[in-house]
Amino acid sequence: MKSAAASWRDFDAATREREYSPSSCIGGNYQPFVAAYAERSAAARAGAAGRLDLAYGAAATQRLDLFVPTRSTMDATVEGNGTSTADAARPPLLVFIHGGYWQELSKNESSFAAVDALRQGLAFAALDYTLAPAATVADMVAECRQALHWLHAHAEALGFDAARIVLAGSSAGAHLAAMCALRTPGAPQVKAAVLVSGIYEVEPLLGTSINAALGLDEAAARAVSPALADLRGFPPAVVCWGAVETGEFKRQGRGFAAALQNAGTACAMFEVPGRNHFDIVLDLVDPATELGAATLAQVRAA
Question: Which of 5, 69, 113, 122 has the fewest CB atoms in 10 Å of its CB?
């Protein structure tokens, strides 16, 4: 598949650095949003009876947190949705992969949507993976795929439906989610993908400060670019971003959504007014928001 329009090649170094720095749209300080992730995630872990630090691999970073709704929550959700109790014997699972440019954050800041998910009768998992420079981007893709295979294999014991796993990610997490949703040999089977403010062609990061920890060259960047992959068989998807984002993040989202549609994937694409790169993901499972409604529609169709 050919690359989307590569306007970034005409940028000087300063412009490319700014276009691939999401905080440039909000004055440079994104830490209040990270604090919000952490606060909401800590509340979820403290009060939502999650199963924390489940190991999907041998490394200390290969861990996930899992939250599964109670029987009473499931019954209430079934009644509200008009579905049968048999259909809801086990809830679907929404798996979230965090962002942080492949070098920041963890699952400990990534359970902020767990409470909303449980209220909607969904199980929710937040993944950890090894960050750069300790791991390459290709390593991270492999780890996330490993986590999804592990979840699929242990679904019965953990209490969710292995046939209804939906994958979501934000920023670098959207990139990793897209890579995991590709129908390559041995790839995990997911029913849908929700991709928020992602990068799908990685080569523009070469020459920016972001690549200092990643250590990508052109070949490595192209190999981990879902926009350059065979997209045939990609599952139904949502691709979205905030209105308060750089032109390049918007271009990347539009380009990848168009490529999915051209490959035959049912793909909803939209921009969320008033939201930026960091706060849009807080809407992930809030049914009162455009993103939350779109996520829930994907999960319920799974």
Answer: 5
